[in-house]
Known about the structure:
The chain is an alpha/beta fold and 143 residues long. It has one domain: Nuclear Transport Factor 2, Chain: A. Helices cover 23% and strands 37% of the residues. The chain is built from 3 helices and 7 strands; from the N terminus they run H-H-E-E-H-E-E-E-E-E. It has helices spanning 9-22, 25-30, 51-63; strands spanning 39-41, 48-49, 68-79, 83-94, 104-113, 116-126, 140-142. The chain has a 7-stranded mixed sheet, with helices on one face. The N and C termini lie far apart (35 Å). Residues 136-143 have low confidence and may be disordered.
Amino acid sequence: xxxxIYSSAADVEAAFYDALSRSDFDAMMSVWAxxxxxxxxxxxxxxxxxxxxxxxxxxxLFTSGVRLVVQTSHSVVHASVLLTVHSVVEHIxxxxxxxxxxxxxxxxxxxxxxxxxxxxxxxxxTSPEPIPPAGHSSSHVIH
Length: 143
């Protein structure tokens, strides 16, 4: 399967969250750099380093049968020509579950290579404090 070429870090991030919400393993793996130094940390789990470990962590999540509804807010972006860091708050609900889940603080790092932009790090952890509503904080781009 040929990987898509993402022309910006924002395109990769949109594809990442779309794949996550659809539990689409192939789409999820298309956003990751093919680099042994990629890192993924799901909430309350050990750090996964290297593409085989990252791949297996997503395979396990998606084969669990859990479908997630994901929205992001409070985006802070630090962008340069070859590297972009996004800090977001993820609001995740489990499809069919009406319970309110704590927000997740996530950091996503993207690099630009010869085949476009790719994710090299996704780190997510539960927030130790309530996050104010999205209307109280706007997105910030830091150059």
